[in-house]
Structures are given as C-alpha cells and as structure tokens.
Amino acid sequence: MLIKHFFYSLLIIISFLAGIVLISLQKNLIILNFKNNTLKDTSQSYKSSCFKKNVTLYFWQNEQLKSESNQILWEQDSAKNLTNLIHNWLGLLSEEQIIPDKIKLQAVLLSKNAKTAYLSFDQPLLNKNSSTSQKLLLLESLLKTIRTNQNDIQEVQFLVQHQIMQDPQLNFAVAWPINGFLQI
C-alpha cells in the first residue's frame, strides 16, 4: 500500500512539473535555443549566390532615349532577377512621372526553356490616351532594359491581371521579340 501511495504521489508531482514546464514554454517564459549549424551554412550559401550588379534602365523622355545606372541584388534565379529589374524600371518611370505611381508588377514567369518571359501587371502599362508612338517607345524602353541586362530572354508576353493585355492600337496576343521593332 505504501509503495502504491508513493508511486501515485510521484506521478502527480511529475505531471504537475511537466505541466508547468509546458505552459512556460507555450507562454515563452522558458526559451530553448538549440544550436543549429545548418542555418549558418544556408546563410553563407545565400550570400555567395547573391551579388550586387550594375544594371542600366532605359526610358524615353522628351523624345530621347535616356538611361540610368542602378545597382540591384542579382541571384541565380532568372525570374527573381527579372522581377527586381522591372520593379526598379517601374520605380524610375514613376520618379520621372512617365507612368502613374500605382502600376505594379504582379508576377514574372519564364517558359521552360527560359526564352519567353510572361510579365503580368496589375493594370495596363499603357495609357489609353497615349499615341501609338508613345506606347511603342515605352514598350521599347522596357524591352531594351531587359535585353541589355538579361541575355537569355528572347521574347516577352505582356499581361494584365494574368490575362493578355488589351490595346486598340497594339497587338499583345503574341509575345513581343526582345529586339523590339525600332532600331535604337
């Protein structure tokens, strides 16, 4: 009887202490920090796979092709690089008041062979009231920016909300060649 009583008392005390420890862990009163060497290894490999790259961004202003150099973080993933490049290009155009601030790039996808880039914007990149010439020059500046900084892409498909971009003067049903149509 005494052994049974001792065993139950010990079991109650252990359960009580385990409950206190678990509640303390849940409430962050006790913090366990286990050394993890793999975390250091992944951060070091991330640092080695990324570097700052000077890129040239092109835009048309006052009927002249202008360029600006910028540094962006360049990775091994071509889609991320293209996303960073276009975000910087859109920011530059917004600063120069060529496009409204609110145009955002939603997604960048590359085809399996990484020759075609699909660029999806949240709204049309082109102003409906702009002339065909102005629209072409805006698109040509984007194509030249991509062509100069990312060699492997051959053509670009323009999308709005993941649908083919619509414009009364320009055909976006087919992908645009990266060389564009103008001799710049």
Comma- or semicolon-separated keywords:
alpha+beta; 184 residues; 4 helices; two-stranded antiparallel ribbon; 5-stranded mixed sheet; GMP Synthetase, Chain A, domain 3
Would you mind describing this structure in some detail?
This protein has a domain of 127 residues: GMP Synthetase, Chain A, domain 3. The chain is 40% helix and 24% strand. α3 packs across α4. The protein has 184 residues and is α+β, with helices and mostly antiparallel strands.
Topology, element by element:
Elements: H1 2-26, H2 37-49, E1 51-61, E2 64-74, H3 78-95, E3 105-110, E4 116-121, H4 132-149, E5 155-160, E6 163-164, E7 176-177
Parallel strand pairs: 4-5
Antiparallel strand pairs: 1-2, 3-4, 5-6, 5-7
Helix pairs in contact: 3-4
Short description:
The chain contains 4 helices and 7 strands, in the order H-H-E-E-H-E-E-H-E-E-E. With 184 residues, the protein is α+β, with helices and mostly antiparallel strands. Helix 3 (78-95) crosses helix 4 (132-149).
